[in-house]
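call fold target=GntR family transcriptional regulator
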Amino acid sequence: MLSGEVMNVTFDEKQPIFQQVADIIEDDILNGTYREDEQILSVAQFSQLFQINPATVVKGIGLLVNEEILYKKRGLGMYVSSDAKQKIKNQRRNRFYKELLSNLICEADKLELATEEIIEMIKQLRKE
């Protein structure tokens, strides 16, 4: 991002903004915007980019530090951990299984959908 550039991000009111900041950084790690052992934007840059309070950015980055996805180099900034991508994938797969699939199965049971029907629906969605 260029200096002075503002990113038009719409934050979801159902989730704290700091969590969404952490998710955006995780997405950038997964899609290769940030690579392992590479420096991420500074708090001030994120704050300016998203037009949010720096304390909110600090809290989001803090989550990723606690999860060992980011680490701090004193005086230099925040960097992506060497195994960050795999950690994020593992966390998200776990969340996908526990939350999304669990809810999907619960709703499918209410609708009396067979496993094969669910699989066909998923296959169809993947084609679209």
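return ok
Residues 85-126 form one domain. The chain has a mean pLDDT of 92.
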